[in-house]
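dumping the sequnces here before i forget
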Amino acid sequence: MPELDVQPFTDGAVLNREYIRAAFRSMLRARLLENKLSSLYKAGKIVGGVYLGRGQEAVSACVGAALVQGKDVFAPLIRDQAGRDAFGEPMIDCTRTYLGSVMGPMKGRDGNIHRGRPSMGMPAMISHLGAQVPLVAGMLFAKRLKGELAGVVGATCIGDGATSTGAFHEGVNLAAMEKLPMVVVVANNGFAYSTPNDRQFACRDLVERARGYGIAGHAVDGTDLLACASVIGNAVQRAREGHGPQMVVAQLLRLSGHGEHDDGSYVPDTMKAGHYGRDCIEVAMRQLVEHGFATVDELFAWQEETAEEVQRSVAQAQQEPTPDPYSDDWRAYSTRLS
Amino acid sequence: MSVTYIDAIREAQLKLLREDSRVFLYGQDIATFGGAFKATKGLAQEFPNRVFDAPISEDAMLGLAVGAAIEGMRPIIEMQFADFSSIAFNQIVNQAATHYYRTGVPVPLTVRLPSGGTPGSGPFHSQSMESIYAHYPGLIVVTPATVSDAYHMLLDSVALEDPVIYCEHKFLYRWLKAKSINGDYLPIGQARIVRPGKHATVVTYSAMVHEAVRAAERLQADGWEIEVVDLRSVKPLDMDTVLASVARTGRLLAVGEAFPWGGVTAEVVARTVSEGFHLLDAPPQRLNSRDTPVPYHPKLWAAHRPTPESIGEALRRLLSF
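..and the predicted 3d for all of it:
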């Protein structure tokens, strides 16, 4: 683990009490929602697969909470329920998509973590990794052409595996060349599906790649909320202030399989028992109380409140109609051509 | 005073830049240099903040275009050669093509593909990609064969809300000239009857339209009247015009420069058989390039693609039934 190149609480303009509390609440909402989704999956109630962000909530939430919906761009990837929540995606978008309600943002035409609302600055990911990196660059490029780029940031999250793709390289290089206000957050959870880091890349640490692209690189312990808040918050702020693309590499461990169909048995016990095997939610709760960001009573109240919210959201989505193949217009085109 | 096919492409982009502030051009060597084929010559000088050189990153170029289109812009991406769009394939078919269906948000972008063979260009600067892209729901694929169509169909492509693959034929760039940029306008989605006839129909598109017309002219000496239909857009495919023509002639030959396995000509034949079997007096025929990569040497290249001679032979076989 390289040393942090940004010290927590030093110059983070966005690092404040409300940011940390908001990030934690999104972590909690994501965890409780995903626990529920996992149960529903095992009960056969989910349409398609379930992909959890368990263990990655601190990183993801710190990205989403540092952004402003309606102004910034956030392109989440597979393990970003917490970041989506922090960016302002309503929980019902998630439950509707997973439970097959036609009222979800994708109307049953796409599912699970592929949902998005591009018009509100949250594009819908495709499964081909790295593809969202140039897409976010394009959204920022367009904002520049429209004269709307001042003070705007575009962020996207990817995993260690996606850093091996051509799209990642092309996209980061392009963003660097254009000096776009972009933040690429790499959650290095040690495994791309089942493939370990040593079969994925040969550099000592992925953060070293930033130098090659000519952009700033920051490393952070992804299991440490306060460190993530500082490093990611500062990276977003640096991009916002015109310092060009920022790459953050967060070290952590996925505390679940690739999806709920996968038990993750390829992750060695020594890694699970190691530093990054700790649960970022538990770490965060201790930090919040120790640093006076929240009281124990507040934490309990938030948990209760969130559990109810999850129940309501699931119940509502379950009552809603599913897509109807007879009334769907089956059109892949916006234009009506003969 | 005449205007070439590539002049028309440049003029269309100039008009778009002048009249629509959402339009910008993005591609390799297209700014100061004016593009490998000079399709953007001088445009960066007039619009320095709307015409951009891209890095050699076709994937990222298309990813950028999708992102920009989401933001309400109308990007025109120049692929230096259609062949290189294979690098951007993922962004085109998975990101751009699926976007409206998945999210309800259209991505109006135009990808210009300098397509087709020219002598000495070889396997990687000669390919015709229209069949590949037409396969995917969500994409519109146009293949202008005339100077006027090159101009108007580019304007129309940019006006559409959906992603358009605009296949411009490199062989026509300077060889094809017209007196005016304004011909008989037709909207995208309508085929044109280039040459009326009554004994057989040739359905084709892009540069092959001109080869088919030459073949038809040769057969005219023997009394055969060959109808030539220019599809203009391969997706949507104007089967109404094709079937109406086959109804008049009873015979169909579909000609394309792309590789022979599947593709536009196979689609035309399949649909004609299934929708208009009763109109046919003979088994419908197809003629494409040979089933090899596009060869380098001009002598091999000339025999790889359909020619007036090979189209003429195919027509005579068709007429002999």
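The first strand of chain A starts at residue 73 and ends at 75.
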